[in-house]
Amino acid sequence: MAGVDTNSRSAAIVRSIVALCHGLGLQVVAEGVERSAQLDFLAGCGPIGVQGYLLAHPVEAASAASEAQAASARARLSLEAGSRVPRHEGVEFVQGSITADHVIINGTVRGPGHARELLELQPKARIEGDVHYRALEMHQGAVISGTLKPLDPVAGEKPLLKLAANNH
């Protein structure tokens, strides 16, 4: 990612790789995003994941889950808007649709959730929208204000729904 915002050849290579991955149906994650200009460039490359110091610095294991959620929200908002959103220590919620193979939520999402494989709702998860899933794991305390919509199951199988309880 180092030169995408300063070197046209680097930018062309990244655009080509992203287009190739999208054409093959692969998910793309851009690593090493450290400047807002890099994030702005990536906003024009289509749906991708990003990680780097611009969004979050290394954290202790105890705060990793909440920081990852906050960084994800910052990245999503930034890429959807096409510009860098100032860094916030406490993002209150994610506004909009979330779509991925495996989704883990432990905060508030205002919009639908689409998990092509597994949707895991941690105890503080709040979803205000419909939930589409192949398998759903829901921990005690999680709330869905919407409709459960299982994806087409594999022939002969029922959608997996696992309710997990705290064991302490």
Structural features:
4-stranded parallel β-sheet, alpha/beta, 168 residues, 27% helix, 11 strands, 28% strand, 2 domains
Give a written overview of the molecule.
The chain has three helices and eleven strands, in the order H-E-H-E-H-E-E-E-E-E-E-E-E-E. Strands 4, 6, 8, 10 and 11 form a five-stranded parallel β-sheet that branches. Strands 3-5-7-9 form a four-stranded parallel β-sheet. A two-stranded parallel sheet has the order 1-2. The radius of gyration is 17 Å and the shape is globular. The longest helix is centred in the middle third of the chain and has 21 residues, at 61-81. It folds into two domains: 8-81, no CATH class; 94-164, no CATH class. The N and C termini lie far apart (44 Å). Mean pLDDT is 77; it is low at 82-91. The chain has 168 residues and is an alpha/beta fold. The relative contact order is 0.09. The chain has helices at residues 8-23, 36-43, 61-81; strands spanning 29-30, 49-50, 94-95, 98-105, 108-110, 113-121, 126-127, 131-139, 143-144, 148-150, 160-164.
Poorly predicted runs = 82-91
Write down the overall geometry.
globular
Proportion of β residues?
25-35%
Query: Biggest β-sheet, characterized?
Result: 5 strands, parallel
Separate helix tally:
3
Summary of the model, kept short:
Helices cover 27% and strands 28% of the residues. It has 168 residues and is of the alpha/beta class.
Question: How are the elements arranged and paired?
Answer:
Elements: H1 8-23, E1 29-30, H2 36-43, E2 49-50, H3 61-81, E3 94-95, E4 98-105, E5 108-110, E6 113-121, E7 126-127, E8 131-139, E9 143-144, E10 148-150, E11 160-164
Parallel strand pairs: 1-2, 3-5, 4-6, 5-7, 6-8, 7-9, 8-10, 8-11
Helix pairs in contact: 2-3
